[in-house]
Amino acid sequence: MDFSPRLPLSLAVAAVLAARPAAAEPVEFAIPAQSLSQSLLAYSQATGIRIAFNEELTHGLHAPALAGRLEPEPALKQLLSGSGLNFRFTTPQAVVLSQDARHKPGASHLDLAPAAMPPVTVLGTPVYAADDPHNPDYGLPNTQTATKTDTPIIDTPFSVQVVPRAVINDRKANSLQQAVETVSGVGFMPVDGGVYNVFVLRGFVGDSAVFRNGLRLEGFNFDTANLERIEVLKGPSAMLYGRGQPGGLVNIVTKQALDRDYHSIEQQFGSYDFYRTHLDFGGPLNADKTLLYRLNIAYQDNNSFRDYVSMERVLVAPTLTWRPSDRTELSLGLEFQNDDFQRDDGIPAVLNRPANIPISRFLNDPKDPLDNQDQLAINLNWHHQFDDNWTVRHHFMAVPHKTYMDRAIKPVFLLDDNRRVFRNGVGQTDDQAFYASDLSLTGKFRTGGLKHEVLLGYDYFQKESLYRFHAFDTSPFAAVDIFNPVFPALPVDLVDFAGWGDFRQVSVMRDRWHGVYFQDQIQLLNNLFLTGGGRHDWAETGRGDNFADSLSAAQANFSYNRTERFSPRVGILYKPLSWLSVFGNFNEAFGSNNGRSADGRPFAPETSSQFEAGIKSEFWDGRLTANLAFYHLEKRNLLTANTQTVTDLTDQSAIGAARSRGLEFDLNGKLTDNLSINAAYAWADTKITQDNDGNQGHQLPLAPRHSGSIWTRYEVDAEPLRGLSLAAGAFLAGVRQGDKENSVQLPGYVRVDSAISYRFRAMGSTMTAQFNVNNLLDKIYYVGTDAIDSAIPRADIIPGAPRTFLGSLKVEF
CA-CA distances (angstroms) from residue 188 to 94, 179, 185, 668, 688? Predict the structure, then answer.
């Protein structure tokens, strides 16, 4: 986005923004919450009204979203609400902004005071709505995830990072794992060979850290075709989102229906027979734009650098939105994803390093049948504005049928000769259903000299699972030489899952919890903000098991473990300058339920707490933002061996503990009009602080001491190369421990990626041809180990891909 310097009043008013005449008739607005100057610019384009103001007047200020059909004058009032600015029409086509001389700089989105000061002028260029498919911005100014209110990031006393669609597009990140690589302190754990999206945030494994539009959705490897952006909230988040791991959460925000026509078709093709087609259509369905739609369809078929590994994926995601008035909106969204794929458990470690074998070597079995996972997500969201200050919102999601079937000959451990891997026949099915709901009320008001934005809410989550596990002993024939593999014949038809009989288990599981929460964002002075709140959770976890594959017996053994807890959160933020914030916060969280001891007593649930302090800044009217944070995070009540039990060596006790402390830095946005950047760095010091299994003092798995990334894009705007973009980036991680025993170390690495694209007009459409090279220097590196579900993580090391090429052609019309 280009911004011109300040001009004399006579020149600026003559040239400001739009040439269309002003209209007293209502105008259709679709302006997102963003910086005030950007919103005024979009307003002027929509109405043709020229606006004169001094850029110092709006520096650091943000405007709320503006949507629907409104007359120009009330629309401008809504944009300026909370800014402390007044406006005056000097002609039907010209407005002057002013400020009260008593009003101090640093007003926030909570500010409701009037103002006045002599006007000057500023000139700008067109801006993009946050959900505009053409938006090229690498930084977005607001976040919903950190506070569940539309708050500017610079006014939020918590660490939160946003990955916009532009970064996902430029990197051609087709998986959630790839998309979050540009965020500090976020790693990945390839559970079940990478089937599940499990993230490592601030050193802790977030096995329930994935949310969809603010609602918990545990599980599979999500495609990015239907993602608008990704918001990563760091630290414990129980106050707003309920039970979870303390490192943070990854909230995927899906694409919404559009009020302007948009159609795109993209074809990708690349190394290892990679083919992918993506359609993205949207727009109004009627003349008054009260009924809108969006449809995303993706199909992908690919092999892999790993022998015998392939995947086929289908995704269909329609969304329908109804706006019966300018204050009410209701949306219904569906998303179906089906994957047929080959499970891949990687390679084992020899001594304390990954085995020195080709990274393409597949050690499961070439005769393994393809596995399958499918899920259907249904979203129903609505909100209603009672007036300019009070809004009620409700989000509901149901995932009524999510199935995972896995049948494989799985490497289990390396034999003593350090060359043969022992394998077992493993099969599992997991039928799950999720239901989540969140109802909230937000409002703005004053008490004396204090300005409040309050949030009151209630949410509910339920997960049901029917899990079957079959295994058979393959010891007489299944050991394979990792240096010269010869795969023996199998005595069992892996497709005939029901015929496996050596070991069987059926488990019925049910999690239910609900909570009430409150939050108050208070502006004490013009530049001092306090956010405080709390939540009370009621949680119950139930499970019944049977080891003869009898569902009725498992149901008969079913029992619940019930717990409840209050989780507080408080944050403070001080803005000595409109572009600079200093913040600190304290959080407590209610974590996973640990189940029951050998004598049937429930363990205390996991808990955590965090102290965090940092600095936020934004430059050039919010085009470039930075976040620097230091945190100290502790997790308690981890399960460890019970040394007081002599008769049962498997008995456990919930007295384990771990801590993580570190420094994180993120930089997002534009360095110049042509150069965009995403940069991140994290230093993490993690340690198991209390443990009876011999791991005390060890580093947490897959938590490198140093990690970081940088991704930049340069856009050429001079003829004859206008439309050309060059992008490149580096992604690095230090040495990581592969398990909590610290028995294997994954070497550090630096991976370099690059891209070149050319955007042009042809046949009445906009076309973009792009070529990406990932792992440009062809470095050998390892993504991680499965330190959750694998009994021996050192046997499940997943290699990273070598140099790969990806070409694409996108047509937008």
Answer: 53, 11, 10, 22, 19
Summarised one tens digit per residue, pLDDT across range 763-804 is: 889 999 999 999 999 999 999 998 877 778 899 999 999 999
Say which residue the tokens 């936020």 belong to. Answer: 616
pLDDT of residue 498: 62
As a whole number, the mean pLDDT across the chain is 86
Quote the pLDDT of residue 127. 56
Note the pLDDT of residue 110: 55
Answer whether residue 22 is part of any domain: yes
Instruction: Give the CATH number of the domain where residue 499 resides.
Output: 2.40.170.20
CB 493 within 8 A of CB 274: no
Sequence-distant (6+) residues with CB within 8 A of 27 are: 46, 47, 69, 70, 71, 72, 75
Q: What CATH number is attached to the domain comprising 84?
A: 3.55.50.30
Q: Could you tell me the pLDDT band of residue 224, with boundaries at 50, 70 and 90?
A: very high
What does the pLDDT read at residue 501? Answer: 65
One-letter amino acid identity for 437?
S
Nearest of 119, 88, 90, 115 to residue 101 by alpha carbon: 115
Distance separating alpha carbons of residues 327 and 587, to the nearest angstrom: 34
Residue scoring higher pLDDT (451 or 82): 451
Closest CA to 591 of 562, 565, 558: 565
Q: What is the pLDDT of residues 238-269, one digit of tens each?
A: 889 988 888 999 999 999 999 999 999 999 99
Q: How many domains are contained in the chain?
A: 2
Whether 342 is covered by a domain: the verdict is: yes
Domain end position, chosen among 99, 120, 135: 99
Pairing type for strands 50-52 and 94-99 reads parallel
Domain that holds residue 429: 262-812
Rounded CA-CA distance 168/138 in Å is: 10
Bridge partners for 461 per DSSP = 436, 513
312-321, 338-347, 359-368, 406-415 — which is least confidently predicted?
406-415
Tally of CB atoms within 10 A around 317: 23
pLDDT of residue 705: 96
Q: How many Å apart are CA 604 and CA 347, to the nearest integer? A: 37
Cβ-based neighbour number of residue 499 at 10 Å = 12
Whole-angstrom Cα distance, residue 701 to residue 744?
10
pTM over 0.70: yes
Rounded (10°) angle between helices 36-47 and 72-80: 170
Residue 58: φ, ψ to 5° = -105, 0
Alpha-carbon gap, residue 161 to 140, rounded angstroms: 9
Q: Is residue 591, in this structure, part of any structural domain at all?
A: yes
Give the whole-angstrom CA distance, residue 744 versus residue 414: 13
Neighbours of 189 (CB within 10 A): 25
Is residue 627 included in any domain, yes or no? yes
Q: Quick one: pLDDT band at residue 368, thresholds 50, 70, 90?
A: confident
CA separation, residue 297 to residues 280, 300, 378, 403, 678 (Å): 7, 10, 16, 21, 28
Angstrom distance (rounded) from CA 290 to CA 446: 34
Degrees (nearest 5) of the Cα angle 59, 63, 65? 155
In angstroms, the CA 774 to CA 804 distance is 5
Strands 328-341 and 371-385: antiparallel
Q: Last residue of some domain: 99, 123, 148?
A: 99
